[in-house]
Amino acid sequence: MTDAIVLDRVSKAYDGQAVLRETDLRIAKGRFVALVGGSGAGKTTLLKLINGLIAPTSGRVLIDGADIAGRPGHALRRGIGYAFQETGLFPHMSIAQNIGITPTLLGWPGEVIAARTDELLDLVALPRDIADRAPAQLSGGQRQRVGVARALAARPSILLMDEPFGALDPVVRVALADDVRRLHEALGLTTVMVTHDVGEALLLADEVVVMADGKVLAQASPRSLLAGHPDPVVADLIAAPKRQAQRLAELARG
Predict the structure, then answer these.
(1) Euclidean distance between CA atoms 40 and 34, whole angstroms
(2) Which of 6, 150, 211, 242 would staple 62 via disulfide (CB 3.0–4.6 Å)?
(3) 93-107, 147-161, 168-182, 199-213: lowest mean pLDDT where?
(4) Domain spans of the chain?
């Protein structure tokens, strides 16, 4: 299987302090990968390195086999969508303008952008008549769906998501997570998602990458991780949702 993303001995330090230690990571095309770990594990740093928002202190990041160091940031990010918890929607712009901002910057014709906006609202299960509203007129879950739509506007092959569901209530969170997985499959994306919710990662992802203290401790399928892992940090992290599931099953049995 061809790799969409490769980190080759990549590290990142600020003022001599490592936030990501030397890391090798391969993500195959079409995979849904979740990055999990506690605060300060290096998850968001890794995501920003993939997107070229920050440069590595050492090593190389390759997208589709090419070192991104030789590519202008705007050219790189045409093929990479980025959605995050605080959606960053521009409050003075309509929903349609927010979704269409990247295609507009790329010089797409107005009628093409309008058609793409309608298509994306359908894809993220929002009514088309919200297109003229301001972000403040939408609920948190709706704004997050607009953020996903905006990330997909220029038809990227890679979707990066940083805690995209973190601020949502549990019911909305599950619905949006299911829709993101559906979009991943329907659009043939390579998706990398940062989440603090290990249970969510195990349920959504094809592979889970466990990080701690700026290091990758494990990269494996949910089934493999649930079967056990020799690293105690990984084992403890995976044990928490297993215990919750067992307690819920006991409650259901009465």
Answers:
(1) 16
(2) 6
(3) 168-182
(4) 1-79+160-254, 85-155
